[in-house]
Amino acid sequence: MARRYDPDRREHIIDAALRVVEAKGIAGLSHRSVAAEADVPLGSTTYHFGSLDELLIAALRRCNENFGQALRESSVLAGASGRGDGAELAEELSRLLGEWFEGGRGATELEYELYLAALRRPALRPVAAEWADGAVELLAGRTDPATARALVALMDGICLQVLLTGGSYDARYAREMLARVADASPRP
Fold first, then answer.
1. What is the Cα–Cα distance from 139 to 76, expressed in whole angstroms?
2. Coil, strand or helix: which one is 140?
3. Measured between alpha carbons, how far is 10 from 16 in angstroms, rounded to an integer?
4. What CA–CA distances, in Å, run from 166 to 9, 18, 87, 105, 160?
């Protein structure tokens, strides 16, 4: 049997891990389940990821990159410097959250399952913190750092409520609450 050369094998394994977690949850994640999903030998998963925590870290980083990229590409946040209108910022953040939920609950649930796995897996905590810190850094270009952190916390809370209650995302509510926080930031 000829050996298949795949320079992107590590990335394919991460993609497969995300599909496994989306379908079966973190409890269903194993090197064996990921190898089967990626259609690679079991040794490939253990070669690229010595532990499940290493694989989960890579998967969580991939999820972080997706939302971080959306924030960086946002017309209101891209190249932002200085404070602007809180309502405009709230509108953009609620729109981004809406787009995230439009991608389907499965993807959002997947991202939060990985994010919240840090509660029980200390190795994931720095990666979970990277997401929050990165989002705060981007938002701090439009408001002060404390308000940016509050906006990130509010977005997390809104997302968790939607996911845990089975409700639907309410853009009007999100926009109003985000504007309240953004508009309460101290002015120079």
1. 10
2. coil
3. 10
4. 36, 22, 27, 9, 10
Tokens of 125: 């905590």
Give this prediction's pTM.
Answer: 0.83
Closest alpha carbon to 17 in 65, 47, 43, 49: 49
What's the Cα-to-Cα distance from 118 to each of 113, 124, 127, rounded to whole Å? Answer: 9, 5, 8
- Helix (H) / strand (E) element for 106: namely helix 105-116
Total residues belonging to the chain: 188
- b/e for 20-53, b at 16 or more Cβ within 10 A? bbbeeebeebbbebbbebbebeeebbbebbeebe
Q: Which residues contact 136 (CB under 8 A, 6 or more apart)?
A: 145, 148, 149, 152
Residue matched to tokens 């701090």: 140
Find tokens 């946002």 and name the residue. 74
- Encode pLDDT of 66-122 as tens digits: 777 878 887 666 655 555 678 899 999 999 999 888 877 777 888 888 888 999 999
The DSSP output letter for 41 is -
